[in-house]
Amino acid sequence: MDVKEFDYELPEELIAQTPLEKRSDSRLMIVDKKTGEIEHKHFYDIIDYITENDVLVLNNTKVMPSRLYGEKKDTKAKIEVLLLRELKKDQYEVLVRPQRRVNVGTIIDFKTSNNNIILSLEIIEKKEEGICIVKFFYQGIFLEKLEQLGEMPLPPYIHEKLQNKDRYQTVYAKQLGSAAAPTAGLHFTPELLQSIKEKGAQIVYVTLHVGLGTFRPVSVDVVEEHHMHSEWYKMDQETADILNQAKKNNKRIISVGTTSTRTLESIYTKYHQFKAVEEDTNIFIYPGYNFQAVDALITNFHLPKSTLVMLVSAFSSKEIILNSYKEAIKEKYRFFSFGDAMFIK
């Protein structure tokens, strides 16, 4: 399958640069995954499409202020570091730019505004595509240093400065460790979640720490040749029990976002049931994939030729999804992380 089949033209002005004042005021496109029929709503209308026969699955990962700007100890060359995931205490997999300027043994220092070095790292392994394994050195508590020095890892297509860091977190973010937000969840408010519960639907949480696997661009020409980077996920026993009961009772499992979807499908295809587990996944979902866990999907509008467009195309069809995107462009929907949403039912 040619990656170009998942391309589309997007006017730059439709890339959302800032979040809306109220999360649930974003627009919502309802798409029938079988017929392609489209309705135009607002996100707060999602309540009309959820019943007591539904289980809503949310990813409660929390984004770390994981973008750091430092300098090499010896040459003072400027280096950008993006934390991807923790491997063990003080050791992380990171993305280094420019990687060609560092070698195994390179020390990078991170300074406060008054020029104090409060965090350093050493490159202990260089891998492909800008990835390195590093060890951090500091006094005190690592997360406090991150809060002091780090910036929210906004995607490169967002050029506006984020005024409020919390707007790149879901209102239910709990488990710290993500390099990017699970953006489909950004539309929910506490009030909307409460209304969904009052309607009789169940809400459960999984954790997938978003890393390079989700947002790395596809650099190959043939879809099947793309290799997903591993990301860590977790499901607890309570969630597994509720979801297994839902399957048994023919309830609809609604996944909020591609990260929740990849978690659910990773577990179900591996164990043929939902299970309390924490491990890594590099599942790559593209057309031809047979969904076993998820019945409906809430998601944002994704980048051209991305693995995320491929996943939603697999959930419906490439023709229906690209036609929906064409309609969204015509109707001037807002795209990507701070953009509008789609409910594929």
Topology (elements, then pairings):
Elements: E1 27-31, E2 38-42, E3 54-59, E4 61-63, E5 67-72, E6 78-88, E7 91-97, E8 107-111, E9 117-126, E10 131-137, H1 142-149, E11 175-178, H2 190-198, E12 202-208, H3 212-215, E13 231-235, H4 237-248, E14 252-256, H5 258-271, E15 277-281, E16 296-300, H6 307-315, H7 318-330, E17 341-344
Parallel strand pairs: 1-17, 3-12, 3-14, 4-11, 14-16
Antiparallel strand pairs: 1-2, 5-6, 5-8, 6-7, 7-10, 8-9, 9-10, 12-13, 13-15, 16-17
Helix pairs in contact: 6-7
CATH topology of the largest domain: QueA-like
* Strand and helix order: EEEEEEEEEEHEHEHEHEHEEHHE
- The class by helix and strand makeup works out as alpha/beta
Total separate domains: 2
The low-confidence parts are none
Structural features, described:
It is a single chain. The protein has helices at residues 142-149, 190-198, 212-215, 237-248, 258-271, 307-315, 318-330; strands spanning 27-31, 38-42, 54-59, 61-63, 67-72, 78-88, 91-97, 107-111, 117-126, 131-137, 175-178, 202-208, 231-235, 252-256, 277-281, 296-300, 341-344. The longest helix is centred in the last third of the chain and has 14 residues, at 258-271. Helix 6 (307-315) packs across helix 7 (318-330). A 9-stranded mixed β-sheet has the order 2-1-17-16-14-3-12-13-15. It has a 6-stranded antiparallel β-barrel with strand order 5-6-7-10-9-8. It has 2 domains: 3-63 and 164-344, 3-Layer(aba) Sandwich (QueA-like), CATH 3.40.1780; 67-149, QueA-like (Thrombin, subunit H), CATH 2.40.10.240. With 345 residues, it is an alpha/beta fold. A hairpin with a 6-residue loop joins strand 1 (27-31) and strand 2.
